Amino acid sequence: MPCSERKLDTIKAIYRIDPRAKFSVNGKLESRIDYVYGGIIWETQPIDWVDVIEEMYVGKVQEMKIKMTESIEMSANESGNQSMKVEVDQVLSMDKPWQQKLAQNLIDGGLAIEVKMDEVKKTKKKAKTVAKKATKAVSKVSKKVKKKAKK
Asked: What is the DSSP letter of 35?
């Protein structure tokens, strides 16, 4: 019987918390209620649902971001039958395994660089600061021009 993605993520999270955990799954594991009320029959010390959820989402948050150094046409899906155009300086989230392989190939080929989210936020903040300063400078110049025009 096939597992749902949620059920599989739950099982993986349990084993990341305690690789020696012994349990059996009884039915579905789609929610906290399933988990707490009979979805898992423990043979070893039970693991709290909150700990499992935290572990499940820690892995999901670990995504890779790349910044393009060249404009290219690249694969838009896992099978490669769709493409998309990406531009220089475009930042892409590469969180799925096939996307991370593609990202690594782009980095190795010099078409992209890996960036951390802090870098992207700092760059955006710096751009906003520069834009505000430029707006203030233009405003001052226009006021001076208006004063001279009145004279």
From this structure: I
Predicted TM-score (pTM) of the model is 0.41
Q: Which of 58, 82, 72 is nearest to 103 (CA)?
A: 72
| C-alpha span between 147 and 85 (Å, rounded) | 48
Q: Using one digit for the tens of pLDDT, what is the confidence trace for 19-58?
A: 999 999 988 888 888 888 888 999 999 999 888 888 877 6
* DSSP assignment string, 54-121: HHHHHHHH--EEEEESS-EEEE-STTS--EEEE-TT-EEEE-SHHHHHHHHHHHHTTSEEEE-HHHHH
How far is the CA of 109 from the CAs of 80, 100, 103, 104, in angstroms?
18, 14, 10, 8
